[in-house]
Write a structure and sequence with these properties.
The complex is a heterodimer. Chain A is mostly helical. By secondary structure, chain B is an all-alpha fold. Chain B has one domain: Four Helix Bundle (Hemerythrin (Met), subunit A), CATH 1.20.120.80. Chain B is built from six helices and no strands. Classes of the chains: A mainly alpha, B mainly alpha. Chains A and B meet through helix 5, helix 6 and helix 7 of A and helix 1 and helix 5 of B. Bound molecules: copper (II) ion.
């Protein structure tokens, strides 16, 4: 049976005035359109926060540089971090979860389509609220017009005395509002996966992407809620004269640190687990082998979910906890490396002996594996309390977490974009431009973030707006900045590819990669109702069964 | 569109999945529990650390009666939902309104306590750490009770005009889950504020 036999005939496309189209997109409750909105919104903020990063790198290119003032520098790194985590990372991964989960489990939509739209618009408003501070935050004389207390906003920097005006309020409100959106989406993902599966799609037959997003959504519930609570406390302090983080009245700045990192560490896993999910779908297809060790992958993910809830204070080794706390958090941090290592072995096991096709999505996956492994190794180094107290707050830490978030999450997201773009638009992204994008981005990434470990080891602190010449940091910083620009050029090529391929790309058909999960059973792009008739599933690879009926 | 070949065989009749309303409410309860946990931790962390008075021992009185009201409303809502499932709409409406009355009484008790603390003892949210943590924890809970009362009242209005029948009983059960959660949180808040915190 060829895959064409299951084509759903194209839905009639009528020419509509653009206002009608816009109205349809704004009022949509379709999970696919909301998924696309999430992704576009995240890509917009990727550009914004990317430009902020470039300005930071221009400032640090040479010693004693005066490209921006120290005050503006503080605002830049605060906005860059906040934007990338909350308004680029989370939305783009929620976008993929929204688009793919219902298709992969054979459902027609999410469990609560209107809640889904509500959550998206909450998240979107959060992002705009954060940037509204640029025009709306000037409160008092001398008050900054953008949040500048760092993405973790340690007390007492956020107290009224140190953050006059309204920039910190916009920061708090933006995170609060988008946090509600994240919790709504997480509840929706959980309800969809548990309650909307098509007949025969037992839990142990679900694609790993669905499994991993289930774990991610559970972690959002447990991780984003503490942040929401802490933001409430901060608002109470700032507006009602409360004393939660007010040391003058006996309050504790440490408490904010704990609350923030109880959110902050699991957040990293909220960002990386969906990328593990992309790996687990893409690597098998381009290795032409089923995933190696499916049950172990599920178990390892659930295990990561639990263990990563109890490692948060490894971000606080240098603030003076007692030795028991330091030992506990060192041990748990080391322990989380075990299930992560298992996953890397499973992906390698999937590739081992397979007929590997080096298409662009697969290239990004292979780079992901090596880079995430390296990031994990520096993570183990920093997870040890003794070593961490030497390197914390240095560029070594900046290099480590950018290795996870760029080398891991961004590479994973690029792999996913190349892999599912044909499903979303009906056209394949240009392979030549894709390879150019991949190699340029790879070179730029390694130039920037491999080298960034060195000034860290040499003692360059993070968040300084400039430095003295002759400390051995000069050349390295210049090269790091050059790497940043190479990455920017690669992203511009990618953006051009997105646009050009949308109009001129090769037609994808239903199933351009000869894959096995249900989203490839329907047309590209899928009709509003996803499947003309709800599928019935008898194995983990329903499309394999369709294509090879003799196998059953 | 012409008739197309259906590649997938027909669905078996035995495929059953959990109710999405209940699963979603369970998810909300997990998220809310995490929020309350943070506020409870903050309360316990700051017990006895206020630099000025008044202290909990001086001003707090244990609200036994109102606690009994709130906890018994869990029983009434449970039997209300049971009655609706058995299509006994009259019994449902009676028990449902009783739940609202009990919840309302609890809120009256909280209001009275706050009035007494503010006007007799001068304790506000900005007085000291006790004030900050007490009003935010008890207030967060009171907010959840109020939200619950609003939702219960909406159902009551629908029931009075005859729009709540047996087929709505699954939705009513979802709301009842929320109410049980609010009651369970009060057990924790009560223990922390009126027993451990004094
Ligand atoms: Cu961490």
């Amino acid at each position: 049976m060829s895959s064409n036999a299951i084509t759903i005939p194209g839905v009639q496309i009528d020419e509509k005035p653009w206002v009608d189209t816009l109205h349809e997109w704004v009022t949509t409750v379709d999970h696919k359109r909301l998924g696309v909105l999430y992704i576009l919104y995240a890509l917009l903020f990727l550009v914004v926060a990317g430009v902020e990063a470039l300005i930071i790198r221009i400032q640090l290119m040479f010693p004693h540089n005066h490209f921006v003032s120290p005050q503006v520098f503080n605002r830049l790194f605060t906005m860059h971090g906040t934007t990338m985590v909350f308004f680029m990372g989370m939305p783009i991964l929620f976008g993929f979860a929204n688009y793919l989960v219902p298709l992969m489990i054979g459902a027609r939509d999410m469990a609560f389509p209107r809640l889904n739209a509500f959550s998206f618009w909450l998240s979107a408003m959060g992002g705009f609220l954060l940037y509204f501070s640029l025009v709306g935050a000037n409160g008092l004389y001398g008050a900054g017009n953008a949040p500048d207390a760092g993405w973790w906003a340690y007390a007492p920097l956020t107290a009224r005395a140190f953050s006059p005006g309204h920039s910190t309020d916009y920061w708090t409100l933006a995170l609060l509002v988008s946090g509600f959106g994240s919790i709504g989406t997480a509840i929706n993902i959980i309800a969809t996966i548990l309650c909307m599966r098509c007949p025969g799609m037992k839990l142990n037959r679900m694609p790993l992407l669905a499994w991993l997003n289930l774990v991610m959504a559970g972690m959002v519930l447990l991780a984003v809620s503490p942040l929401t609570a802490a933001q409430f406390m901060l608002l109470i302090d700032r507006y009602l004269g409360g004393h939660f983080f007010d040391t003058q009245a006996g309050g504790s700045a440490m408490l904010w640190m704990h609350f923030f990192w109880i959110f902050g560490h699991p957040e990293v896993y909220v960002l990386i687990i969906p990328c593990f999910a992309f790996m687990s779908e893409i690597i098998p297809v381009f290795s032409r082998k089923p995933i190696f060790g499916y049950p172990v992958m599920v178990a390892a993910t659930v295990c990561i979910g639990f263990v990563s809830m109890s490692v948060w204070a490894h971000h606080m080794f240098s603030v003076g906890m007692n030795s028991y706390a330091n030992s506990f958090f060192t041990i748990t941090t080391m322990a989380v490396g075990v299930p992560t290592g298992i996953k890397i072995f499973n992906w390698l096991g999937t590739m081992w002996g397979g007929k590997i096709q080096f298409k662009v999505p697969m290239l990004f996956c292979i780079a992901f594996l090596f880079q995430f492994l390296t990031a994990g190794l520096t993570g183990i180094m920093l997870g040890s309390a003794a070593f961490d107290s030497q390197l914390t707050l240095s560029y070594f830490v900046v290099a480590h977490f950018h290795y996870t978030l760029v080398g891991g999450v961004v590479f994973g997201v690029f792999a996913a974009l190349y892999y599912w773009y044909p499903k979303i638009t009906g056209r394949i992204l240009n392979e030549t431009l894709g390879k150019l994008h991949f190699w340029l981005f790879l070179i730029g990434f390694h130039l920037t973030f491999d080298l960034m470990h060195i000034p860290g080891l040499l003692g360059m602190p993070r968040r300084i707006y400039t430095y003295e010449p002759g400390r051995g940091w000069d050349t390295v910083n210049l090269l790091i900045s050059v790497g940043g620009f190479i990455q920017a050029i690669a992203v511009v090529i990618f953006a051009a590819n997105l646009v050009v391929s949308y109009f001129k790309g090769k037609k994808a058909g239903n199933d351009p990669w000869d894959a096995w999960t249900l989203e490839w059973a329907t047309s590209s792009p899928p009709p509003a109702y996803n499947f003309a008739s709800i599928p019935l599933v008898a194995s983990r690879r329903p499309l394999w069964d369709l294509k090879h009926p003799e196998d059953q | 569109m012409s008739a197309m070949a259906n590649p997938f065989p027909q669905a078996p009749a035995t495929w059953r999945l959990p109710d999405r309303g209940k699963v979603a409410m369970a998810g909300l309860i997990i998220a809310e529990s995490a929020i309350f946990t943070i506020f409870v931790v903050a309360y316990l962390f700051y017990v006895g650390k206020s630099l000025t008075g008044p202290t909990p021992r001086e001003v707090l009185e244990t609200p036994i009666f109102y606690t009994i009201c709130l906890l018994s409303s869990s029983l009434t809502i449970h039997f209300a939902a049971k009655s609706l499932a058995r299509e006994r709409v009259g019994a449902f409406l009676g028990l449902w309104v009783l739940t609202i009355v009990l919840g309302g009484t609890f809120m009256y008790g909280t209001g009275q306590e706050w009035h007494r603390l503010i006007y007799e003892h001068g304790l506000t949210i900005s007085t000291n750490l006790f004030g900050t943590t007490y009003y935010s924890l008890v207030g967060l809970h009171a907010f959840h009770v109020t939200a619950g009362l609003v939702m219960l009242s909406i159902v009551a209005i629908f029931a009075v005009v005859g729009r709540v029948q047996g087929e709505q009983s699954r939705r009513v059960e979802v709301l009842s889950m929320y109410w049980h959660f609010v009651d369970a949180v009060w057990v924790v808040v009560f223990t922390v504020v009126y027993v451990l915190g004094r």
